[in-house]
Amino acid sequence: MIQSRRLLDLLARRRDAGLLLIAMLTMAFLLGVLEYLHLSHQFERDLQTGADIVGRTASAAVVFDSPREAAEILKAFAAMPDVSGARLQRPDGSMFAAYAREAQAPGWLQRHGGQVQVGVDVLANGAAVARLALTADRGATWATLLSMLGGLLGIMGVALAVTGLISRRLHAAVRDAEDRTHFLAHHDSLTGLVNRATFTQALESTVEQAQAGGAPALLLCLDVDNFKLVNDTHGHAAGDQALIAVADRLRALVRDGDPVARLGGDEFAVLLAGDRCEDAALRIVQGLLETFPRRPIGPSHQRLGLSIGIARVPGDARTAADAMHCADVALYQAKRDGKGRHVFYSAALGDVQRQRLHLQLELRQALANGQLQLAYQPIFDVAGRLCSLEALARWQHPEVGWIPPGEFIPVAEEYGLIVELGLALMTRARQDIDTWRARGLAAVPVALNVSALQLRTEDDRQRFLAHLATLRFQPHEVEFELTESVVFEDLHNPDSILVHLQSMGFTLSIDDFGTGYSSLAYLRRMRCRKLKIDRSFVRDIHIDKDNALMVESIMRVAHSLGMLVVAEGVEKPAEQGCLAALGCDLYQGFGLARPQGADAIEGLLGQHRADRPPVTMIEADLAH
Amino acid sequence: MAAACLAPTSAIAQQALPESDLKAQIMVRALLFVEWPADAPAPGQPLVVCVADAHPASAALERLAGQSINGRQLLVRRTTVAGLAACQVAVVGPAMLAALKSPMRGVLLVCDTPGALDAGAMLNLQADQDRVVFDVNLSATRQAGMDISTRLLRLARYVRRD
User: Fold this and answer.
1) Which domains does chain A have, with CATH numbers?
2) DSSP calls for A351-389
3) What is the pLDDT of residues A364-382, one digit of tens each?
């Protein structure tokens, strides 16, 4: 392709040069014609002048009828080398005297240059007494013209050569720029791998060939695990370095000619074609998943894991788009299975994916129709008094019935519905609280869960705050439960929403503590009001000494930072007893109360009315 | 000093004409190449050729009267020495030439006597074998305020220029 472009280039350049040459030659020709006319005119004028002078001199010889003297006078033409002959004739046409140049071997120009004739009347006593006719060769005119044209063409030739040299350099520069542009249009500038558009073209033709009975192919979609974390913790330069390392590794693992692309962000794709592509795929999988993560990359010595989804062509997909989709589904499954692994696409995976897709469509509808509700799980203090309610999403499907959050929350996250879902649940909480208040029930604070995906973009954060203002939530009405990842991401944001919420007086609690980063640094920095210890530490705490030790330590840290500790997943009285002995502030779990709908919880709220004051007292005490 | 060593063979001489007619014709043709002073005679005035009665060419000259010489009509008068000053050309014999004390301004003295150039003649015609040739005394001509074209001088047998 590049070769043919170069050829066209060359032809265009040749054509340009040809046109230039023709223009120059035309100019030279026109100049030549003009110069010829000019020279010819001058020549004839000179001849006329010469003839005039000689004619005048000869007039006396004619008057005195002396041809000898006239012939002598005509010899003056010897001084005009172009004149080849002269004839002095009487008015009656008879020859009076003549001159002929001594014969020399005429040059080529003399022979072919043509001749010119001029005549003057020889006057005496006011009348023509004779006529002098000259014959001259145009050879000299031609010689002058040719030497002029020669000089002109020489100068033009030099100019053309110089122009050609300059234009060749310019062309080379332009061609380099074009090649660069061409490369950039088809490649990723960071890694030098081909880009999505180019890869898709290759994929399309491979799928077409495989469909037509050609060799089978495998499409691998790769994604760097926790890439966002690399960017966040080590900076974008480290992120770029990681991407380059992955690209280099991929390039080293594939055979020459196998397309490797960076599809965008931290996504890569490899296309392997041929009968032995399964072996090649395994080699890549091994090279990337087993040895690669062990190598630290860059100055930050980060270790990268990859997830890989693989689709077979034509087994799994018949079009390029389908193949891409299948590999994506497999990749997603690899991520859900715990990352750092590869998954081949299968029909069953496809079904799961289709179900999720279907669920997503239904979820959109449910959001539009207000089918999402909240269940409320009570949180008690050590004396068994109701302190707050954790709001949990519930989906009442009109046909299927209850759909568990473990099923639809990931779908909402995957398809970008989590923001809408969060806002819808806030609205629902407002309605429930208003209902309770209308019925004279003194409401305890409702804790709303906030996902990291809900607050990822600036736009989402603004919507969240705007919605909060619209619903006129007061700090005594709602609290927010945040996963560790929310806190972690927010921590680096100069426009921290958590700081913002805290300054508005809202209580924040850290959810599922102990399963994620469990960073003491951010505990100190954020100073959230509550810390919820994950259920995995609470389970069998009365038997499991390790858990007990862990919880005790966490509680000590939390208390020393002025936080209240909430134990999640309390199921047995023995567990609660142990927790109480360790000094736990608040309790939540099936053993105490299951989540209940807004109506069902009203009974509990009614009871609580009587013993409300002590709860606030405890919180107030421990806050200091 | 540089005498014109050319001796043109005059074609006129070969015509079967009497010598007097031949000389008259040459005299008249030579007048075509003579320049008179700018003041006299005024342009358009006739060109007066005076000739002594007894001169052999007088009759031949009279036959040529009426011709146009460079736009001026040729008049031929027979005069004595006293009348020569009013002429532009005086065709004189040796006696008349000797009678002239000094050259007259604006009068071309023409003779056909050998040695006349020394006596002050400006144009002297000579028969040479069967031809008529002429000598020119350019210095005398110029002293008298006239000039003779080089075209004519080329044809002269001898030109005195001192």
Assistant:
1) 20-99+112-186 (3.30.450.20), 196-345 (3.30.70.270), 371-623 (3.20.20.450)
2) HHHHHHHHHHHHHHHHHHHT-EEEEEEEEEETTS-EEEE
3) 999 888 889 999 999 999 9
